[in-house]
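User: My instructor asked us to take a sequence, write out its structure as tokens, and then describe one feature of it. I'm not sure where to start. Here is the sequence I was given:
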Amino acid sequence: MAPSYFNDDNSLLNFVVKEGNGVKGMVDLGLTEVPGRYIQPPHHRINKQEVVGSHENVTIDLSELDGPNHEQVVKAIVHASETLGFFQVVNHGVPLEVLDSLKVTAHQFFGQPDEKKAVYLKEVSPSPLVKYGTSFIPENEKALEWKDFLSMIYTNDADARESWPNDCK
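Assistant: Let's start with the prediction itself. The structure tokens for your sequence are:
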């Protein structure tokens, strides 16, 4: 059950979104049940019967994106996005060392105390390029998204180094 002080949508929204505690903050409190605000209404859920057989196509080879099979790759991405909501890409060209470094950096950021992460909340971030949040527009969503994210608009390496949170460099 969600902690008792999440007795309405406003207290949940304040804790998760406005105070910057995120989904991780709820889990760290000992949450044992997903709050109703995170549960997608049945009529908005993916119909599993409609996607039977699509599961073999969730791996998309990006090496063919710039070749003669460009349209097929794009269609595969659109299909996976619209039916399953996710897919895996392979042959993307991102070195394994970069991916490993990204995982370490993500753990550093999300492992910080809530007040340090809250500095980068979308509404108050010191950088227009770096934003921390949970749902994209929580006030308008029928169901909140079960995620916390740190995003960066990449412009160039110098801006990226300057804008990225110091504790995660």
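For the description part of your assignment, you could build on this observation: The helical segments are 9-18, 22-28, 70-83, 96-110, 114-118, 157-163. Try explaining in your own words what that tells you about the chain.
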